[in-house]
Amino acid sequence: MKDIKNIFVVDDDSIMLFGMRKMLSKITEKSTVLEFKNGQTALNEISDRIKNGNVLPEVIFLDINMPILDGWGFLEEFTQLDIKERILINIITSSIDPNDREKWLSFRKKTHHYIDFVNKPIYKIELKDLHKMDMAS
Amino acid sequence: MDKKLEPICISKGWIDLFSFLDDSISDRRKLEYFKSKNEWLDLLLKCISEGKELGYRSKIGSTEVEKYIEWGFKPFYEEKDKINGAIITAQAICKSVENEIQIEKLNTLLETKSEISKVGTWEYDLEQNILSWSKMTKKIHEVSEEYNPEVETAIEFYKQGHSQNRISMLVHRAITDGMSFQERLQIITAKGNERWILSSGKPFFKDGKITKLLGTFQDIDEQVKTELKVTESEQLLHTLVDNLPLNVFIKDENSRKILVNRAECEYLGVSNPKELIGKSDFDLYEKDVAQISREEDLQILKTLQPILGKETISTRKDGRKTTFLTSKIPLLDMYGKAYALIGISIDISNLKQKEGELRRLIDVTSVQNKKLVNFAHIVSHNLRSHTSNFSMLLEFLTKEHEEEEKNRIIAMLSKASDNLLSTLDNLNEVVKINTNTSVTREAINLKKSFESVHENLIALFKKNQVEFKNQIPADLNVHGIPAYIDSIVLNLLTNAVKYKHPNRTPMITVTAQREAGKVVFSIEDNGIGIDLNKNGDKLFGMYKTFHDNEDARGIGLYITKNQIEAMGGNIIACSEVDFGTTFKVYFDEGY
Fold first, then answer.
1. Do B389 and A19 count as a contact with CB atoms less than 8 A apart?
2. Is B33 on the interface with A (CB under 8 A)?
3. What pLDDT digit, counting tens, does each position of B409-456 carry?
4. Packing angle of the helix pair B482-498, B556-566 (nearest 10 deg)
5. What is the edge-to-edge ordering of all strands in the sheet holding B467-470?
6. Closest Cα of chain A to B417: distance in Å?
7. CA–CA separation, A87 vs A62, rounded Å?
8. Which residues of A touch B382 (CB under 8 A)?
9. Which of B485, B494, B506, B499 is nearest to B571 (CA)?
10. Which of B2, B123, B445, B545 sits at a 20 to 30 Å CA gap from B484?
11. B578–chain A nearest CA distance, Å
């Protein structure tokens, strides 16, 4: 398994950010974890990196309900970006609205990135969760 | 004539009788002429040879002048048993024969007529007290042809009671006063069958005295029974049609009413059906309605296809509308051509009204239901996000050994608890709005509402140097709940300040006017605006925020919208990024 170097966590809930940080720290000593309070700031960062030729995150943890640009809005724009790499996006949400599941499936079909959908609560993130893509392909 | 068929003697009368035949021919020659007729000669020879008295009739003469002659051939004897010749007699019988033939003809005709029409005759000779019945009269009485009636027994054939009393009286009056009669009565025949008959009688005068009664006797049993049946059927039909809880009418080819029942009369507000007979839909209904109806009628008369159970709305001349379920069926004559149509309508106005009410109720319910499902998702989502945080943090706590980290987790737990409480408060607020719709609404003066809210916001406005313009006319009132109106105005004004443009002096202008029966007020700012293409559908959603603003809770506009809708109002937003936002709120006018 390749080492994961960059992880983005996009969530406006400080408690969830705290939890994510805690869970990730247990499995990724070598990775850089960046936190974003909404979809727009995360998207800005990614666009900047593409422009400057910087390295992109291999894994993104994405919340749905966020201010300014929510998870769906983020995906809408992210999937339009010119990215060769296949990025793992983990949607983590407390929503059990069937509409949200359908939206996820339709995004999943439209893009070459690997998009997963996980319902809260989560208690633990394992190393293999970051490599789901490798196992799936 | 002698045995040799030579004349012995010719009488003067004979010569006179045959003088109409050619005079130039001698009387002897005339005899030769008779002899040339085979029948004449045969009878003469037979008379002479067999000694029999014979006779026959024949026609003599040309077509211009002809006579019926009654011939007689009688043998005469020289001595006993010895025939010497024949005495030939000739008698002209022209008139009587003609009459006889005529009478025979008439009799045959009468009998045929009597047979077909079942009309018999009778004759009562007063002088001789003899009653005679014709063949048909006897047949109607079901007695044999040999039966000889008498006045008393004849009257006894009539059914006891009315018929017998009546005929006795009529016959008596005819005899004494010379009055003719004609009456429908009932008899019981010889075989015991009850039968309707038409009996008529007429006195016959001779020297100013009634000597005879002549009359006819007709079997009208079938006719009367049919009539009775028809009357009965008609009565049944009328009772039925009149008492049906349906409007029934029959219209002729020109769509003029030829029959209406009681329900139709009541509907059209007349007490007597005669007031409607002959009237068309154009006399009774609005022109448009009548025109549609007339076209339908024509279609039915043409195609013979009935219209069944069609929903129609009739507008009477007085403007009252009624919804009917109408059927129109063509009435066909013997040749299969439609000459009229029968219409049956049932008033379903009440049903339609109830249907409308139900539909409105369903609409309201389905809107409520949609709102409820939406709200349930919001609740579930928000509660789930808090509980999952709790769950996650507790899991961390149980696995944690470091004291410092434990404290940090506990601090997070307490924050999560606060968040949950505040969410519950928000949800509670929304529930309250939606359950408090029965709170009494009143007329609220818009200008005053804005002024009082503005007073409460003076500190905020000053701090942000807001230029506030209240251009609401003093006379505009809305129909609503005062607390909600205050809350709505407060929230919208606060938002206008909250999302001011960093490089501009905030300007807020409020206006109001009447628009399509509603009162609409607008709050216009020159703030940062919002991209409605991107966020329009989420603007009034719960926990949706669009700006990186610390105060944004994503609840204000959601509550505002709920309050507006709870009062039957409506809110829309127009906005352009970097230019500003205008909210327009619609309410019923308050009086």
1. yes
2. no
3. 999 999 989 988 888 888 888 888 877 666 778 899 999 999 999 998
4. 150
5. B467-470, B507-515, B518-525, B580-588, B570-576
6. 11
7. 12
8. 94
9. B485
10. B545
11. 15
